[in-house]
Amino acid sequence: LTILAGKLKDDLKAYLTRNTDDLFQTYKSSKDEFEKARKLACQTFIMQKTGNLNKAQANRFWKEFNRMFKPPSDQQVEALCTDDGTVLTENKDIEKEMFDTFFKARHIEKNIQNFDNEFYDETNALYDSIKGSAFYPNPDMTEYFTESSALYNPITHWEVKHTIDNPVLCVDTTA
Question: Partners of 87 in the beta sheet?
Answer without folding.
Answer: 81
